[in-house]
Amino acid sequence: MRDVVVIGCGVIGLSTAVLLRESGFDVRIRTAAMPRETTSSVAAAIWYPYRAYPEDRVLAWGGRTFEVFEGLARDPKTGVIMREGFELHREPTPDPWWMDAVPGVRRCEKDELPPGYRDGHAFTVPVIEMPIYLGYLLDRFIASGGSVEVRPVSSLAEAASGHRAVVNCSGLGARRLAGDDSVVPIRGQVVRVRTPGLDRFILDEDGPEGVTYIVPRSEDCILGGTAQEGDWNTAPDQTTAEAILRRCARLEPRLAGTEVLEHRAGLRPGRPEVRLEKDVLDNGIPCVHDYGHGGSGVTLSWGCAEETLGLVRKALERTP
Ligand SMILES: Cc1cc2nc3c(=O)[nH]c(=O)nc-3n(C[C@H](O)[C@H](O)[C@H](O)COP(=O)(O)OP(=O)(O)OC[C@H]3O[C@@H](n4cnc5c(N)ncnc54)[C@H](O)[C@@H]3O)c2cc1C
Residue 268 Cα, ligand 1 centroid: separation in angstroms? Predict the structure, then answer.
């Protein structure tokens, strides 16, 4: 009998599994796909609360995750770096609601605003290079004695067999596994390009032609994006890609004509609120649900993992 089975090998499942294992639990991950095939690997990824609710819990989880990423950024092998950048607005805009989680947020100077923008905020946040970071988390989990089984779960009760507790980090898969129709895809498409030496990110969340962002990483740059609710298509679309490239080159002219390396699309697990709570399955086994992080799974990952750890600890204190 093992202590815990974690369902899912995206950023939520991996962070939780690492924390549980490093806290002394015997942990196995069950997953339908390895990290490279998850939504998490498509993420840009920047620390930024987007399409995740409720705000008070998101602020607490996000603040804690920010602190953990700041520590990870000191180790180059994690794929986490701290980067300055801008969030731009076409109209004067109040300070961001998540400002308490990020030290040093300031209003942009006029000469920092590209044409067409009247306001903006500058701040330094973690940028997480997901293919590297997910590999780092997986290695850390395995090195600590955890195991991974690639085999889809047919039901929570089936996964629970042989374990004292289940942690459900199945993202969009929770729609079926937990019978939760409030989980919906929010499709995001990105273009990976060769970086023309950019060192700052730019976000324009509410442009008339859709969300636009430029996230420079170590060797490349992620250009986005879209937020298409209810769209299940994981195949990148050429017209959308051309529009993304056009919008990004307008924001940052050095991107014009840059070499395209890859097109990707992923389905964010949208939900009216993140579901992070303890449940009990019909067979009496405790199950902690941790899914529905929308466009903020990376941003909330460590805060949620710590809360999940607390719930698992409490549940296992009561079961033999
Ligand atoms: C284009 C794009 C850009 C983004 N940018 C950012 C960003 O900048 N910052 C940020 O914080 N977030 C960003 N996100 C959102 C972020 O990617 C998601 O919130 C996050 O990946 C959700 O993680 P997850 O682990 O819950 O889900 P996933 O990564 O989807 O992982 C779910 C796991 O569950 C497994 N699973 C599902 N069903 C089953 C089953 N029945 N049996 C076994 N296993 C199962 C899957 O195989 C997978 O391993 C972005 C997303 C996209 C698409």
Answer: 6
What are residue 188's DSSP bridge partners? 266
Give the CATH number, domain containing residue 99. 3.40.50.720
Residue that is written with structure tokens 């032609």 in the block: 209
Strand 163-168 with 184-194, pairing: unpaired
CB-based contacts of 132: which residues, under 8 Å, 6+ apart? 77, 78, 79
Q: Ligand 1 centroid vs 100 CA: distance in angstroms?
A: 26
Question: pLDDT category, 50, cuts 50, 70, 90?
Answer: very high
Q: Reduced to 3 states, what is the DSSP secondary structure of residue 223?
A: strand
Residue 54 has which token pair? 């409720």
| 261: confidence class by pLDDT, cuts 50, 70, 90 | very high
Confidence band of 302 (pLDDT split at 50, 70, 90): very high
pTM, entire model: 0.98
Q: What domain range is 48 assigned to?
A: 2-318
pLDDT of 1 strictly over 90: no
- DSSP code for 95: P
Domains contained in the chain, number: 1
Q: Please, which residues bridge with residue 185 across strands?
A: 269
Q: Which of 30, 31, 222, 237 to mutate for ligand 1's pocket (most ligand atoms within 8 Å of CB)?
A: 31
The structure tokens 């070499």 sit at: 259
Residue 278, beta-bridge partner list: 288
